[in-house]
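Re: that chain you flagged

S.,

Sorry for the slow reply, it's been a week of failed gels. I finally had a moment to sit down with the sequence you sent. For the record, here it is as I used it:
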Amino acid sequence: MTTINPGRLNDDNVQPASDLISGVGLGLRSPHINEILTDLPRIPWFELLADNHMVEGGLIPVQLAQICQHYPITFHSVGLSLGSVDPLDFNYLAKLKKLMKSYGVAWLSEHCCFTSVDGFHSHDLLPLPYSEESLSHMAERISQVQDFLGEQILIENVSSYMKFAETTLNESEFISELAKQADCSLLVDVNNIYVNHINQGINIDDYIASLPYDRIKEIHLAGFDNRGDYILDAHNNPVAEPVWQLFEKLIQHVADVPTLIEWDNDIPALQKLIEEADKADNIINNYRAGNLDYAIG
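Prediction finished late last night. Pasting the structure tokens below so you have them in one place:
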């Protein structure tokens, strides 16, 4: 993995922050922050959960500023609730916009879901029916968010454990048309595609083949938890072998898209995450070299 040290916080005389995001990055988690700031490991970029940085004061903003002095970052949000019928929270958006500008955040990503209803905020990413009505509603809300922020955002496909009677489009059709109607970018979570393949029987080959590759700006890799009758997108294990294989299929179309390792529960040592990132690097580099018989492990 390569190190990028932009030293660019609040510097207007540098290249756009989005140009600094490349290679395989990691989701930044609090148990690793002190080690990262002490050792400055060779990690090209970090993704941060934006909602953890919305409160002013204390140690977290200081740590964030220090991270930004050494690494480019992106924001991942769980609070926009883009699929909800609740009004958009423009106070929340204003805080996001201020943080993104202050810390030179490369881009913001959110989920194709809702997280609130009637003012109640869930801790889960709640799926929505893939219908024309949902599509129009969500595209309009994404457009409003992008107009407010003054830039495109990325929308991520989510895992789901149920099917709606109102669904009329398959998942890849929905997110592809959503990106077109809202003029947004996509974050493709490979683990979520596999989870939905196992739990709901979606065809992963058709899914990958139908994606609008020019809209894909980021890829996520994570581990699932096998619960026997179903698998859970728990982000608590290494990336599984079939997810690596699905990743290989995807990068044949988007080999230069930045990729991220997510690990949110039962968080291991930082070195374990770096090893997962190195596996992704290995797959990408072997594909570029024309050698698809890569070795993992």
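What I noticed first: Confidence is low (pLDDT under 50) at residues 1-13.

Talk soon,
D.
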